[in-house]
Design a protein that fits this description.
Elements (H helix, E strand, L loop, with lengths): L21 H18 L18 E4 L2 E2 H4 L4 E6 L3 E2 L7 E4 L6 E17 L2 H17 L1 H8 L3 E2 L4 E2 L9 E2 L7 E17 L4 H22 L8 E2 L2 E2 L9
Parallel strand pairs: 1-3, 2-9
Antiparallel strand pairs: 3-6, 4-6, 5-6, 6-10, 7-10, 8-10, 11-12
Length: 241
């Protein structure tokens, strides 16, 4: 593989719709890149092709159908657990002095799992190594296309494992999997909206008035007024509006 951006044999760039959650966008960027990388290989050496009849490897998201794989290997891309870094107190960026609304920004981390599936352990390991090398070589391209802050190290290649959770259909015992774990970081931005202050004041007024009325109604009519040394004391009733 050369050091330049891979040829876009997949034609379409990763989906960049704002409504998508960031994990779907990142997952799409990984699939896009790996299809391009495997699409540059020669036939007979795990070449990916848009034509399902001629492709030598199946690349997809989350889970693959064993009926679509046949005897061919597969590469499944799936995001793992995501968590917030909680970098600062309240993650506050800006505050609107008029409305009190706030903009927040934090850094989230997740792991993209690239499960390399095959009936041949050597072949699965080769797919894993190509995947790892491609992610490292085209890291900046991936970060740009997937909207990621950083693709971090170390990128781990695990040993043989059971890939049944990544396959749909009959679970052939011959399938083996080698996962590649890629840690990534991406920015998470959101807004917190404050209820209008005049509206809160109106609610507070109603609550105070209701409380005062309940106290007046609860006072017995024949109750003796407060006095000091036998003389009535003028009572001033006040409540906060």
């Amino acid at each position: 593989m050369s050091g330049s951006t891979p040829t876009r044999v997949h034609d379409q760039k990763p989906v960049a719709v704002r409504d998508l959650d960031p994990l779907t966008k990142i997952q799409g960027a990984f699939i896009w890149l790996l299809k391009n990388v495997f699409g540059e290989l020669e036939y007979g050496k795990l070449r990916w092709d848009k034509d399902e009849r001629t492709t030598e490897i199946v690349i997809g998201a989350d889970r693959l159908r064993t009926s679509g794989l046949g005897q061919r290997p597969g590469l499944v891309i799936r995001p793992g657990t995501t968590q917030t870094a909680n970098l600062s107190m309240d993650q506050k960026v800006t505050v609107d002095s008029q409305t009190g609304n706030r903009e927040h920004l934090d850094l989230d981390s997740t792991t993209i799992i690239c499960m390399c599936v095959s009936k041949n352990p050597v072949e699965a390991r080769r797919i894993a190594w190509i995947t790892r090398s491609a992610v490292r070589q085209y890291r900046r391209t991936l970060q740009r296309e997937g909207g990621m802050h950083q693709i971090s190290e170390p990128i781990r290649v695990e040993g043989l494992s059971d890939p049944s959770g990544y396959l749909l259909g009959s679970k052939d015992q011959e399938w083996v999997g080698i996962p590649v774990y890629v840690p990534v970081f991406f920015a998470d931005q959101w807004s917190s909206i404050v209820i209008d202050t005049p509206q809160l004041k109106e609610i507070e007024q109603k609550l105070n008035i209701s409380t005062f009325e309940e106290r007046v109604l609860a006072t017995p009519r024949d109750a003796r007024p407060p006095s000091s040394q036998g003389k009535p004391v003028k009572t001033i009733v006040s409540f906060n509006l």
